Amino acid sequence: MRNIKITENEILFSRSGELVRLTACSENAIRFQGFPDCSVIDENYTLMPVQTDCEIEESGSRVAMTCGKMKAVLEESGKVSFYCEERLILEEQPELTFHSGYRNYLNKHSGIWKCRVTFEPNENEHFFGLGHSMNNPFDLKGGVYDILNTNANCVIPYVYSSLGYGFIWNNPSVGTVELALNRTRWSSEASKFIDYVVIGGNPKQVSETLADLTGHAPEIPYWATGFWQCRLRYETQEMLLEVARRYRDEKVPLSVIIADYFHWTEQGDYKFDPKYWPDVKGMADELHSMGTRLAVSVWPTVNENSENYRYMKDRNLLMRTARGSDRVFEFYGWQAEIDATNEETREFVWSKLKENYIDNGVDTLWFDEAEPEIHPEQFDNLLMKKGRGDVIGLLYPYYYAKMAYDGFKSMGRDDIITLTRCAYLGSQKFGALVWSGDIESTFESLKCQVHAGMNMAMCGIPWWNTDIGGFYNGDTTSDYFRELIVRWFQFGVFSPVMRLHGSRIRHIEKSDLKEPSGDPNEIWSFGEENFETLKNLIMLREKLRPYIKNQMDIASEKGYPIVRPMFFEYPDDEICYTLDEQYMFGDDIIFAPVVNRGQKVKRFYVPRGEWVLTMDKKAYSQGWHETEVDIRDFVALVKKGSVAANCFD
């Protein structure tokens, strides 16, 4: 081949209008980069590539790189094809039928390009990943998806294919991915280059490599595996303490209780309002004496009336805008937002969080609005230390989580977990516990959360949860919601973290606060019969906690999530790629949530082996089965003879 340079683990190929680089970046992983400015840019974003041994062989008009079981073949036309164990898994599609051009670049300005890469479709291929969404299906094949973070839509630019490979789109810019019937296409609206990684192997092998490339989650603190209580919102210190005391009196273990937003004096002050929270240290001490941790909500919004606003603005610690004033979110007036990509911002904000929260006994933080939420969603208008929003905007939640992680580490803390509404590739290494945002209180929403949890799990982020019961439009007095809350609680038991939250429709007399609470949202708030049912589910969670902690340690070590689509354990079983209403919960439990209102029968699939249904203790072998389900019944199966079976005695 002409215009080619080969080094120990790299191929550089120059062609008209593009410089291509292929690199062996981890075991069984090959990285492709295309530079339209025809010069190499060494930018990894959050990727952590490792120089890896490979074999490179040039033959005529093509050159091949072999790394473990992966092989990439680069042709003189520019086309790249990927093989896993000599089986073709991915090949580029030309832009035009009668033209050999591959990849497309459109110059926008100052070294920024609109660029895309297109691959041939495979009829029987299934795709999973892309983080979580309010309405994505389980199998993403056939859809077109925006690469843009908004409330309840956290995009992780990664998919796993049923053909046996993982695909990292290593690009934090706004864009689109088409997993269509006629093509697979990844597009960036504003980037300096095309950058992606193909990882070959079965789900477990790919997950291990993905963790090596983006970071391993730390070991989850044991206290986080229990039950978390929250509502929008506890208006006062005494209101929060009364709830914690009742849980104690009811002998229901409460691991964490959360003080939600507007406990503060002003957005950007990062401290409790002493009028309603007069003794934060005393409150935390009392909670700790009951075995309960305290979490507080933090927003990135900063009002011009905040005591920190002028200091942050004058030092460029806030996000700026290319057009108009630096106000990007309207909520009780227009708000500026912190620039989490700026190290100085992170240091300053952490100093306030530590002084006003952590030093007063707060145990952990809840980073809301972490996308960041802006209106309108014009990321090209955001200017941050790391770059313009449409170029690097997906990095925002990554650095937001890093702020808390670095801060706690500087204090010598290792039990770091931060509840956050958004994430990016690698956020898991900062102890990010992602939740699915402000979702509706409906059975349709519950079903979507099952899909969302499995797809997020495939993206290398094992700590994930939902607002049990959904966030908005929940009427705790209605029969509909009282059925929904039980079904969602059952799902919560078999989620990485079990957390009750929501803004319930208010029937009680309104207070004079700026942001008053909705109706009560504790387990005794949904009727007496439900109270006993939900209490029993929390006690089951207590029994499961050692099992959950063990499975979370596996997630930390190997990158295997605790919520696993059925194909994760059974990749050779074609049926498992279609199972969107059941999943593995660790190695030894199958959970099949009931997600429809009034559902009386649940159909479920058993893979190979012998499994015991916890409801009736009967053994089931491979195939389809069904069972009747009362409102108090849930469908969980345990591997016969496993330790997990003891949790259901």
SSE topology sketch:
Layout: E1 4-6, E2 10-15, E3 18-26, E4 29-35, E5 55-59, E6 62-67, E7 70-75, E8 80-84, E9 87-91, E10 104-109, E11 112-119, E12 127-129, E13 144-147, E14 158-161, E15 165-169, E16 175-179, E17 184-191, E18 194-200, H1 203-214, E19 227-229, H2 237-249, E20 256-259, H3 280-289, E21 293-298, E22 301-302, H4 309-314, E23 320-321, E24 329-330, E25 334-337, H5 343-356, E26 364-367, E27 382-384, E28 387-388, H6 389-392, H7 396-410, E29 418-420, E30 432-435, H8 443-457, E31 464-465, E32 472-474, H9 479-493, E33 498-500, E34 503-504, H10 528-558, E35 563-564, H11 566-569, E36 583-585, E37 589-592, E38 601-606, E39 611-613, E40 619-620, E41 623-628, E42 635-639
Parallel strand pairs: 19-20, 19-33, 20-21, 21-26, 26-29, 29-30, 30-31, 32-34
Antiparallel strand pairs: 1-2, 2-3, 3-4, 4-18, 5-6, 6-7, 7-8, 8-9, 10-11, 11-17, 12-14, 13-16, 14-15, 15-18, 16-17, 22-25, 23-27, 24-25, 27-28, 35-36, 36-37, 37-42, 38-41, 39-40, 39-42
Helix pairs in contact: 5-7, 9-10
